[in-house]
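Action item from last week, closing it out:
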Amino acid sequence: MKSLLFLCATFFWTSLISFAYGAGPCNIYIHGRDAKLGSWDNLPHYINWNSSLELENAAEDLAPKLVAEISKCKKAPIFLRTYDYSSAVVYYILGLGRRYADLYPQHNFVRIYQATIAVYSFGGAFSGTPLMDYVCASGKSKAITKLVGEKCILSMTTAEIYHPSSIINSPGVPIYLVFGTHDREYGEEVAELLRGSGLTWEERYQNKESSRSDGVVPLASAMACENEVAITDVEGECNKINNDYFIDFFRSDEHSHSDLVRDRELLRGVYDEN
């Protein structure tokens, strides 16, 4: 696990990338379900897309905007910075782009896949959140709809059939995972849903186990776990959707991912295997 101290050394790594490609890296920022979270709209190469759509339609809306932004980066290496829902949508785009690269070289998905060096995912909703399950079931809780929106998005529920991993399992480029586990002081209804995510009744109430979450997205979702699992330990691990491409980059137990998306140094950090 990388610490914040590591980020001080990222400029050296970025310089190596710049030398190899003949240009500085180009970070493209793609907001999540809540476009206001993190105030990414004041960053260069920010994309505003329709995050209220289901996965396939969301990808179709995002892709041409992303291609247009990539073209502005000239020949610079492309790093995509995503969070919660946009992480899942970008994963879907890259996976299909990789699959059909030879057949449809001019398709937007293929162009995005071929241009992208890496993705940095902040609290990615790769396997959804039980909060959206509740919205889709009733949509009546003000506390929950305030966090994830009033509209039901099946692609953000925990139902595996709606996740991008039900269609693809390889993005073809590394996805570096950034996540936090601090859940702040949310209402008891919200906290109970998240604490019980992936746990049986016996595990939750007899064994008093609790699923780790940052207050919106369960840790297992942000860590791109293969199946809906409950990570109850601070150092908990899981089988990734694809161990070759999903890599833990930064974790904080003092912050939620909504805090981390405001960290300007972290938003520029790059992965170093050393």
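Closing note: The first helix runs from residue 10 to 21.
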